[in-house]
Amino acid sequence: MLFFKNLNFNFKPIFLWFLLLIFSKSLFCQNGKVIINMDTTLVELIELKKEVNSETKNYKIQIFSGSRNEAENTISEYKDLYNDSVAIIRYEAPNYKIWIGNYYNLIEAEKEILEVRKKYPNAFIFKPTNSVNFEDRKLKKDEEN
């Protein structure tokens, strides 16, 4: 502390303020517990929505329709070119079809098809049909009424 005696300012107040700032941190902390009370119907609705979303098919792009050998060659070529793991072969009599992507809206699909049509000019966007049966599902509140 000999070094600080020769200085013109008083070091003690600065040191005390520094200590006060360090130890006052715990004074302003908030400790608490959050309890969420919600209706069980809401939980069931959320689970139902998750299930429907997993079953819902969005926009896709079809890049090929033809024989099985050509479809297998085309899908391996596509996967090599675009590194895409969502390309699938689908059989709809009498042709094998290659569907790519799973786009949530038409704008995303249109952006992708511009690139895909450079290699596959017959590619087009479509929305697969999806049949989900909700009639056998009832929520507990409906059963109570």
Q: What's the short version?
A:
Helix content is 44%, strand content 17%. The protein has 145 residues and is α+β, with helices and mostly antiparallel strands.
CATH topology of the domain at 57-126: Alpha-Beta Plaits
Low-confidence stretches: 131-145
**Roughly what is the average pLDDT, rounded to an integer?**
79
CATH class designation of the domain at 57-126: Alpha Beta
Give the N-to-C terminal Cα separation.
Answer: 82 Å
Description:
The protein has 145 residues and is α+β, with helices and mostly antiparallel strands. The protein has a domain at 57-126: Sporulation related repeat (Alpha-Beta Plaits, 2-Layer Sandwich). 44% of the residues lie in helices and 17% in strands. It has 6 helices and 4 strands. Residues 131-145 have low confidence and may be disordered.
Annotate the secondary structure layout.
Elements: H1 2-5, H2 11-23, H3 40-55, E1 59-66, H4 68-82, E2 88-92, E3 95-103, H5 106-116, E4 124-126, H6 140-144
